């Protein structure tokens, strides 16, 4: 949205809200001389260029992959969002990201052992992955007449001679999934359906979809640090604060189980903590 304003400003138009709370166009260059108009355009373009550099850092390959591997979004969502921007109204941005995704796919996932990929899906998951239509097809195949078995064997031989389609290409060639359950939880689709149809690609998709947006709960950690570093604790060193916050976060996540009950550090129970610490040190010495 920030870049949209600058792109319109380069064309000499901005959108403002008047006194009646109605959005209207304001032409910037109507009352300016040619020299001032030219300088203003240059400044706006320089500012747009700098912001676009930072904007490009936000849309990394990992970000694009997380959208593309969402079965209900794929490339369509990115095209709807980015085709509104003049800087994205070419096919170059998609070719760049497609090349990056293809390179990661071919280097790390495409040649993955089929047995390893299949081990991720249990028998129960395979059964649950079959939707209503697939179950009907499986049932109809079990009721084929003997005279049609020969025709089916010929079809299987013909299909065996055809080249196997790349999993990534096949996934991207299909339209987005229209299922409200998978819109909320895309990993569920890769677990229920994708792991069966795209056993290798599902590994790549889950790897990108499970990347945390942040390495920590930023806002909550800032609040916790603020409560920890009070005016009476202004001499705490930064590495002490960092270690304490890491232990707190790891303890809440279940990654680290402290020997001492950290919950007792709040309030007036610090004497009990000291007593427990002394007992632990004595037990270790003995």
From TrEMBL:
Molecular function in Gene Ontology: protein dimerization activity
PANTHER family xref list: BED FINGER-RELATED (PTHR23272), ZINC FINGER BED DOMAIN-CONTAINING PROTEIN RICESLEEPER 1-LIKE (PTHR23272:SF161)
Transmembrane intervals: none
UniProt organism field: Fusarium oxysporum f. sp. raphani
InterPro entries attached to this UniProt entry: HATC_C_dom
Stated name of the protein: Putative AC transposase
Domain HAT C-terminal dimerisation residue range list: 167-250
């Amino acid at each position: 949205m920030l870049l949209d304003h600058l792109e319109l400003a380069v064309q000499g138009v901005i959108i403002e809200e008047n006194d009646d709370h109605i959005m209207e166009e304001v032409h910037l260059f109507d009352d300016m001389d040619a020299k001032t108009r030219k300088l203003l355009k240059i400044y706006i373009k320089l500012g747009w260029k700098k912001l676009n550099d930072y904007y490009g850092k936000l849309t990394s390959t990992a970000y694009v992959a997380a959208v593309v591997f969402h079965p209900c979004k794929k490339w369509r969502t990115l095209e709807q969002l980015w085709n509104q921007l003049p800087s994205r109204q070419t096919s170059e941005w998609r070719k760049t990201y497609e090349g990056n995704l293809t390179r990661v796919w071919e280097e790390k996932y495409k040649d993955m052992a089929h047995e390893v990929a299949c081990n991720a899906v249990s028998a129960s998951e395979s059964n649950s992955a079959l939707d209503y239509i697939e179950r009907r097809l499986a049932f109809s195949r079990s009721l084929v007449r003997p005279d049609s078995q020969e025709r089916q064997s010929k079809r299987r031989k013909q299909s065996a001679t055809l080249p196997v389609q790349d999993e990534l290409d096949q996934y991207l060639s299909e339209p987005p999934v229209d299922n409200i359950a998978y819109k909320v939880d895309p990993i569920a689709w890769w677990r229920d359906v994708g792991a069966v149809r795209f056993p290798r690609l599902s590994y790549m998709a889950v790897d990108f979809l499970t990347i945390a947006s942040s390495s920590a709960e930023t806002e909550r950690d800032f609040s916790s640090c603020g409560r920890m570093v009070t005016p009476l604790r202004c001499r705490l060193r930064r590495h002490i604060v960092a270690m304490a916050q890491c232990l707190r976060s790891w303890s809440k996540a279940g990654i680290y189980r402290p020997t001492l009950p950290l919950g007792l550090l709040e309030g007036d129970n610090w004497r009990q903590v000291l007593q427990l610490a002394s007992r632990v040190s004595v037990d270790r010495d003995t």
